[in-house]
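User: Sequence in, structure out. Go.
Assistant: Echoing your sequence, followed by the structure tokens.
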Amino acid sequence: MRSALKLTARASLLALSLGALGSAQAALFEDDEARRAILDLRQRVEATNHTVKAQAEGLAQMRRVLLDMQEHIDALRAELSKSRGSQEQLARDVSEVQLQQRDAQSKTDERLRDAQSKVDERLRRFEPVTVKLDGQEFQAEQNEKREYENAFETFRKGDFAAAQELLQRFVQSHPKSGYLPSALFWLGNAAYANKDYKDALAQFRQMLSLAPAHPRAPEAMLASANVQLELKNTKAARKALEDVVKHHPQSDAAQTAKDRLSKLR
């Protein structure tokens, strides 16, 4: 009985031992699966970490590229802004230069106009002018006109000596002047007033020879008769008076000549 119980106990113990051994083997198998799972997971994690790391590095590199691009863009913007500022300054400088040029040109044009006006004024002083004198119209230089008028004004004031000198100088200086017949007439009268009768007669004769149809020719002929009377040449005086009546019968000098002829008879 005891032996049976021992056998039964031993059998139970063996069974238990076998069961425990089976459980241990089962547990050992489960640990291998877990390790493999862990290893696989670890590999996945490592792969993921590697991918993440690579992506992070790629992002960091992209960020650096973007930063470089941003810096380049900022530099371009700064350069563009500087260029625009330079262009604006250049535009202002150009505008200022153009304004200065316009002002300078305006002043230059004004100076040129003034200079041209002065030149024109000087030229006008030398340009011939139209003169109407003793019924005659002719062209004369302005200095010629001034010289004649000065000499005549001197005669008109009664300074016959100075007038004779000025008129004589005028006749010599302007032998082809339109003033010449009138100048000879007044030169003869100035010489007559100065009792220079021979010179007076010479001037009247030259005037009549030069311009026999001159409006003052009758007066010159009458003055010649007066000179002849002063020279006591009555015959020549009568001839001069007769010529006045003959050649200029409608003149005032002709009437005066007739009166003097009646007295000479």
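User: And one key feature?
Assistant: The mean pLDDT is 84.
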